[in-house]
């Protein structure tokens, strides 16, 4: 299957030895803010390099899952990707960013990502993995969807909830009382439809793009993770570009971040309305009891993956 605009191989030359064509992969569909941000990034790279570098976008897991994309960047078969919590499988301190209730709100998240600590995390990632962090993009807060009314942690007992295969997420939901079932996002709809799982958690726009409103009755506003997606680049690819092209890529990543961040909040509001229009009941909850239950997980992972980083984040509250 060939997607429109996705016909060239990675780093191929397009009838012109002066043009380098690079591939960018992500797991969302073409209507999502990630894809629109990717299109803006590709447009800006083309403009800033006077056409010497072209970026082609492969949405909907065309180049594989998040893990596949990271591994591809490590060996140079993927040039760019948008990846979030799965990076904790490659550089463990990212696990702290995925802890439920690590960030109290959007401002707290931004103060970390766009400060010195966020820059240091990206520098450490490059050294550890060979994958270069270009920019952090904001995503909507993760919310719970279920087929059972959940108003407190006690209501989570026995609920089979899909989580990403991320330690902090699995342990966090276990501590809150649920039964986590890690699986790829592409399997979630059918698993909800057939009863393999009862619930899932994602930003609202992720859920509506996957038509989760067709197979879930409740949206529970847990706001348990204020999260990000990272625009990453294979360092093997980066080193093949000349200095002006490298600078162009970095400038384009920053401008695309600003574009996507504005877009994502509008998208979350629209997605919430889609949920309501589909008959999904929106439930407001007191998050304090959920937060209290995950504190032992915070303490354990902080000791294992970096108490200094944990305290840096915590002190930004």
Automatic annotation (TrEMBL):
GO terms for cellular component: outer membrane-bounded periplasmic space. GO terms for molecular function: carbohydrate binding. Residues 242-269 form a coiled coil. The keyword Ion transport does not apply. It comes from the Bacteria. Pfam families: DctP. The keyword Coiled coil applies. GO terms for biological process: transmembrane transport. Keywords: Coiled coil, Signal. Transmembrane segments: none annotated. This is TRAP transporter substrate-binding protein. It comes from Lentibacillus salicampi.
């Amino acid at each position: 299957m060939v997607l429109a605009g996705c016909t060239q191989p990675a780093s191929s030359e397009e009838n012109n030895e002066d043009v380098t064509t690079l591939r960018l992969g992500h797991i969302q569909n073409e209507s999502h803010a990630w894809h629109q941000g990717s299109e803006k990034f590709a447009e800006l790279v083309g403009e800033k390099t006077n056409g010497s570098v072209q970026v082609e976008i492969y949405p909907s897991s065309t180049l594989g899952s998040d893990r596949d994309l990271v591994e591809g960047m490590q060996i140079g078969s993927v040039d760019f990707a948008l990846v979030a919590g799965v990076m904790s499988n490659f550089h463990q301190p990212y696990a702290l960013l995925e802890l439920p209730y690590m960030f109290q709100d959007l401002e707290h998240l931004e103060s970390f990502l766009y400060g010195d600590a966020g820059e240091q995390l990206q520098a450490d990632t490059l050294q550890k993995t060979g994958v270069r962090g270009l920019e952090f993009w904001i995503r909507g807060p993760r919310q719970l969807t279920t087929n059972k009314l959940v108003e407190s942690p006690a209501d989570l007992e026995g609920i089979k909830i899909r989580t990403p295969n991320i330690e902090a997420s699995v342990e966090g939901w276990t501590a809150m009382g649920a039964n986590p079932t890690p699986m790829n996002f592409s399997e979630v709809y059918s698993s909800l439809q057939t009863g393999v799982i009862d619930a899932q958690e994602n930003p609202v726009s992720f859920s509506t793009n996957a038509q989760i409103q067709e197979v879930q009755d409740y949206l529970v506003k847990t706001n348990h993770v204020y999260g990000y997606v990272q625009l990453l680049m294979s360092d093997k690819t980066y080193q093949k570009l000349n200095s002006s092209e490298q600078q162009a890529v970095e400038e384009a990543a920053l401008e695309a971040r600003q574009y996507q961040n504005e877009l994502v909040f509008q998208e979350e509001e629209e997605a919430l309305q889609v949920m309501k229009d589909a008959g999904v009941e929106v439930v407001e909850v007191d998050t304090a009891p959920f937060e209290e239950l995950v504190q032992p997980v915070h303490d354990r992972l902080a000791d294992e993956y970096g108490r200094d980083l944990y305290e840096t984040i915590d002190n930004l509250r």
